[in-house]
Every structure is written in structure tokens, then in C-alpha cells.
Amino acid sequence: MISIDEFKKVELKVGYVEDVEEIKGSKKLYKLKVNFGEETRQIVSGIKEHYKIEEIKGKQFVFVTNLEPAKLMSEISEGMILAAVDDETLSLISPERKVKNGTKLS
């Protein structure tokens, strides 16, 4: 269990995926260019086995934006896309309606 104060430290924002690239040599990773309104970030995500590029590009999803940058396959990732995962399915989390890029979740 975590406290509400600990949970409030997690920054969740809606971002628009402007571009998606395959990462050479990786079977699982995509490199996403994500627009958060005031800034654009690169986010590396292990969703390649579950989504085609055209299913992600041009859509809004929810991201964690205050994680320390991580290096994956020589690429810097500046956040994490959120997904629901069960034994068989990975489903990316997206807003029901379009909102401004960078909108914070509360």
C-alpha cells in the first residue's frame, strides 16, 4: 500500500504520438515521439509485439512523465506509456475523448 501523498508524486499526462519508429535489433521496442503540448519527448516502449505502428501513430495515450530517463537499446526514454495487461492482452490507456496534449490526469 502507498499513501495518497506518494501517489500524487506520479505525474500522468495525455500525449499525442506524432511518430513511431522500430528500433534496429529489437523485437519488442518502439521509439515514440510524443507531443505533450509544451514539449515533445522520446519514449521507448516494449509494445511492438502487441501493436502495429499505424495503431499507435496519430493517437493520444496516457504517459508517466516524471520518471528518470532510462537507456534502452542505446535510446533514451523520457517517460512510460500506460497499459493494462492480463495473461493474453496488452491494452494501451487512452482518453475517451480528445483533450489538449499535456493534460494532467487527476
Would you write up a description of this structure?
It is built from two helices and nine strands, in the order αβββαββββββ. The radius of gyration is 14 Å and the shape is globular. Helices cover 8% and strands 40% of the residues. A hairpin with a 4-residue loop joins strand 2 (30-35) and strand 3 (40-45). The chain has one domain: Nucleic acid-binding proteins (OB fold (Dihydrolipoamide Acetyltransferase, E2P)), CATH 2.40.50.140. The relative contact order is 0.27. The longest helix has 5 residues, at 4-8. By secondary structure, the protein is mainly beta.
Give unreliable regions as ranges. Answer: none
Task: Examine the secondary-structure arrangement and name the CATH architecture.
Answer: Beta Barrel
The amount of beta strand, in percent, is 35-45%
General form: globular
Helix content: under 10%
The span between the termini is 19 Å
Q: In the CATH scheme, what's the topology name?
A: OB fold (Dihydrolipoamide Acetyltransferase, E2P)
Number of domains: 1
The name of the CATH superfamily reads Nucleic acid-binding proteins
User: In this structure, how is the largest beta sheet organized?
Assistant: 5 strands, antiparallel
Helix/strand class: mainly beta
Q: Please give the oligomerization state of what you see.
A: single chain
The neighbouring-strand order within the major sheet is 3-2-1-4-7
Number of helices: 2
Q: Cα-atom Rg, whole angstroms?
A: 14 Å
DSSP strand tally: 9
Provide the succession of SSEs. HEEEHEEEEEE
**Highest CATH level, the class:** Mainly Beta
